UniProtKB/TrEMBL annotation:
This is ABC transporter substrate-binding protein. The lineage of its organism: Bacteria, Pseudomonadati, Pseudomonadota, Alphaproteobacteria, Hyphomicrobiales. The keyword Ribosomal protein does not apply. Keywords: Periplasm. InterPro entries: SBP. PANTHER family: PROTEIN YNJB.
Amino acid sequence: MTARITRRQALGAGIGFAALGIAGAKAETPALPKAPVTLNVVDVAGNLALTQKAIQNYAKAKPELVSKISFTKAPAPDLPGKLKAQQDAGRVDIDLVLTGTDALSAGLDQKIWVPLLPDLASALPKLDDVLLAPAARMQGLANGAGVVVSYYPSGPLLEYAPERVSQPPNTAEELLAYAKVNPNRFIYARPANSGPGRTFLMGLPYILGDKDPKDPVNGWEKTWAYLKELGEAIEYYPTGTGATMKEFGEGSRDMTVSTTGWDINPRVLGVVPKTAAISTLKGFHWVTDAHYACIPKGLAPEKIAVLLDLISFMLKPEQQAYTYDEGYFYPGPAVKNVTLSMAPEESQAAIAEFGRPEYEKLIADIPTELPLDPAKMVVAFNMWDKQIGAAKTK
């Protein structure tokens, strides 16, 4: 990972955006620069595991546009506020953000993203034509402020150690009973900064038969009550999924919530034993997930032109094949006609060894649901932080 390079940004927070036209109006695509630019890419979703190779390939293919790319990782909850402060100060040093629905949603709430669609659609591929159907549905959640660059069905799944859990829970009631009989052996991370955590949060209303799975304020009565009761048997909530998998892998926890990618990849890496198993709870629906490329307001128009060209490059099938990675976001590709056989040999080998045959059937048979829309997702995260995690998140 290269070190972050802070660059001087001469334009104020709104000037670059204003140069592209007013939101809602069809903007003219900005012109590409006459000299190559440097790009600072910030990843708040773990997306670089899937896309860094494609981004580096772009720099190699277009040296006339890009002289250097630096990569930085940051926590999703911290980024929107940081970007807003930079924009207010007129000194934006972040050019591209790779994010899940969490920071995407918070950023929409704070109005920090350049509107890409429909404003700048002419500079991008026709997304309805190239994206997989469920990825196209996820694209709708971006409200035009980002472009889907990777997709997976996600979860929620339960992952457990079969040598310590002989009979995994098959219903929400059985999970609660297990947690009470085995205090501190079940763990999940803070949803605002964890893909499995938020998938579990948004998936429970379907599992529990709540009144309105899309309304965390008025439709999740069973979910909030369940999470409070479950929390009595949970020692603490880590701030990220990596910590949960480390504790699960080391044996200090016996069960956690997971997704297809968080099941496969930590076993590939040896963080979690290969023998770990998965199960699902009765009534579960996939709550799909995606990663997005978002451009902050406050950049020079010619830099935005390069970023649009980069995003288009990232959606080419041969670049999308890298998103299979080592199962981190399994399957991974957001666009059509990208098969595992197109992926690097190491990706094919990892998925052959650590993938699960049952995923094909689960993906084919189980209904898929969109996550909450961005505004409601922010509300749900805040409610969880206050009602569930306040005293136990660390």
